[in-house]
Design brief:
Shape of chain B: elongated
Low-confidence stretches of chain A: none
CATH superfamily of the largest domain in chain B: Histidine kinase-like ATPase, C-terminal domain
Structural class of chain B: alpha+beta
Strand order of the largest sheet of chain A: 2-1-3-6-7
Distance between the termini of chain A: 20 Å
Helix content of chain B: 40-55%
Helix content of chain A: 25-40%
CATH architecture of the largest domain in chain B: 2-Layer Sandwich
Structural class of chain A: alpha/beta
Order of helices and strands of chain B: HHHEHEEHEEHHEE
Order of helices and strands of chain A: EHEHEEEHEEH
CATH class of the largest domain in chain B: Alpha Beta
Oligomer: heterodimer
Largest sheet of chain B: 5 strands, mixed
Strand content of chain A: 15-25%
């Protein structure tokens, strides 16, 4: 299936390789490396189905993007991608992706999150 | 090992583990992408080492992940020792151990009495970290108030300062290990407090307050932490 994803990570290697995997799986992937460039992407009018952000973006926290994602892209799914496990509270996001997961598992979870967003948009 | 040394070691391990996992993940993703592409090329069938080497790359990376997760050095270096402890005793221990200098004034707010099943030294250390953070926020003026309240089955230790306050975003950033606003500080206080809360099936959170910052260390009931 197709879908438009915004992928945010301050680690170039992680950004490049996950973007390549997702593009190979059929998704259109936009990338950003920090909160500022992510905000620019989110405000550019692209109808994102899924936003995946690294948890630790330099000194910032990827969860800080949640209000902007919810406001500008109300149907989009929002996932945190991290090298660590999830904290006890996950109120503001839809999924927590672990970077250590097998790539095919990550792609499958991304596909499900995009499908969720498409269903929400269709039901709106 | 003393609780403080153990917690510092654990936070350091957690940073190393996190960073190495990120690097391994990028390598796995790159290998998966290249393998998918290579399978479509004629050389894949002509040279069996392609398949063998890609399988080897994945297995070696998985092995590295496993070693990192299971290596004794990455395990908790401080075994929890949970015993029934009075909340007032935990607060007393935390206040007595603070090292924020003579300017620190710690006052006891209302402490609802309760016995909690916790690792007392560990929770006291977490509270001490919060008290010292509050003292830093106050500067030379103001006091840090420590109180405790029952929250249904949970119990919350509450530390309130009279400083400039802190935003949710900044608080989130500062709970990460080695994040600090003070030159020379280790930047581990909030991350240690958060980890202690998580080990007691609870949370560390910023609560609304009119002045300064109010941080709650919640001990959860799910793990039998509160009686």
């Amino acid at each position: 299936m197709s879908g438009i994803i915004l992928l945010i990570d301050d680690d170039d290697a992680a950004l490049l390789t996950l973007a390549a995997l997702l593009e190979d799986a059929g998704f259109t992937v936009h990338t950003a490396t920090d909160l500022e460039s992510a905000t620019t992407e989110l405000e550019a009018g692209v109808p994102f189905d899924l936003v995946i952000t690294d948890h630790h973006l330099g000194h910032d926290d990827g969860v800080m993007l949640a209000p902007l994602v919810r406001r500008l892209h109300p149907h989009a799914s929002l996932a945190i991608c991290s090298g660590s496990g999830p904290p006890n509270e996950l109120d503001e996001i839809d999924a927590w992706l672990i970077k250590a997961e097998a790539p095919e598992r990550t792609v499958a979870r991304v596909r499900a999150l995009v499908e969720d967003a498409v269903r929400r948009a269709a039901g709106a | 090992m003393r609780a403080e040394q153990a917690c510092v070691a654990e936070e350091t391990f957690s940073v190393v583990r996190h960073d190495v996992r990120n690097k391994l993940a990028a390598a796995r993703q790159a290998a998966a992408y290249l393998e998918a592409k290579s399978r479509k090329m004629p050389t894949w069938g002509e040279d069996p080492r392609f398949e063998r080497f890609f399988a080897m790359i994945q297995s070696q990376l998985e092995l590295a992940e496993t070693m990192m997760a299971e290596h004794p050095a990455f395990h908790r270096v401080y075994a929890p020792n949970k015993v029934r402890t009075a909340t007032a005793a935990i607060i007393d221990a935390a206040c007595a151990a603070t090292s924020a200098g003579p300017a620190l004034v710690v006052s006891r707010g209302t402490v609802e009495p309760r016995d909690v099943l916790v690792d007392g030294p560990e929770v006291a250390l977490a509270l001490r970290c919060l008290i010292e953070n509050g003292a830093d926020a106050n500067g030379d003026l103001g006091e840090v108030t420590v109180s405790g309240r029952c929250m249904g089955d949970d119990y919350a230790f509450v530390v309130t300062d009279q400083g400039a306050g802190i935003s949710d975003e900044r608080f989130r950033a500062l709970v990460r290990p080695f994040e600090t606003t003070h030159e020379g500080a280790r930047g581990l206080g909030l991350s240690i407090a958060r980890r202690v809360a998580q080990r007691h099936d609870g949370v560390l959170r910023l609560a609304p307050t009119e002045r300064g910052a109010r941080v709650e260390l919640v001990i959860g009931a799910q793990a039998g932490g509160v009686e």
